[in-house]
Amino acid sequence: MTYPYILPPLPYAPAALEPNLGRSSVRLHHDAFFAAYVDRLNGALVPWTQYQDWPLERLLLHWCQLPRTLGQAVRRYGGGVYNHGLYFSSLAPARTTKPSGELLAEVEHSFGSMEGLHRSLKNAAMSVFGSGWVWLVCCSGGLQVTCTANQDTPLPLWPLFNVDLWEHAFIPDYENRREDYVEAALAIIDWDAASRRFRQRTAGKGE
């Protein structure tokens, strides 16, 4: 994915995540907030033609080495594009999927059980002050739960999924009840998509 960036369509209908996430809140989150990050990243890259062919991941990995104004824009807006892209592709329409095979084995190795992973994700999410994200990532020791502030990413770690902890993600449906939102979001994680990303990582494509 390189400049000019395009807002990817939702991989499901806006109402497909109900009752966990409402139709109007999903549409607003995707069509307004996500779209704004895409537009602002494109705008920031207009004068910097020498960086327009860099993949988004490369820009994000090296944002602090870019010219100052571009680097800050990449960190904020490029991070918003990357993070939201994974978020919307990490959720599944109101159906339950579960990890299996190698990913399930890795979850049990790293967290003891699915319940242990759920507890770690929820505790990490509730520890975030202000805006940010909670992630399940692959690292050298297996799987790890980590958090990032604002629109920072966990790169170069390889994320399997994330949950948006910005207020715009949950206030329309849950007001100030972030914990309820986190529970609802974790209940609709698309583990099939997470398993595909895990296989990509273990096959060496996430290096």
Task: Please give the largest β-sheet.
Answer: 3 strands, antiparallel
Helix content: 40-55%
The total of beta strands comes to 3
Query: Would you identify the regions where 5 or more consecutive residues have pLDDT less than 50?
Result: none
What best-fitting shape do the alpha-carbon axes yield? Answer: globular
- The proportion of strand residues reads 5-15%
Mean pLDDT across every amino acid position: 95
Individual helix count: 8
In spatial order, strands of the major sheet run 2-1-3
Sequence of secondary-structure elements: HHHHHEEEHHH
The termini sit apart by 17 Å
> From the alpha-carbon coordinates, what is the Rg to the nearest angstrom?
17 Å
Helix/strand-derived category reads mainly alpha
Can you lay out the helices and strands and say which pair or pack?
Layout: H1 23-45, H2 56-61, H3 68-89, H4 101-111, H5 114-127, E1 132-139, E2 142-149, E3 158-164, H6 167-174, H7 178-186, H8 191-202
Antiparallel strand pairs: 1-2, 1-3
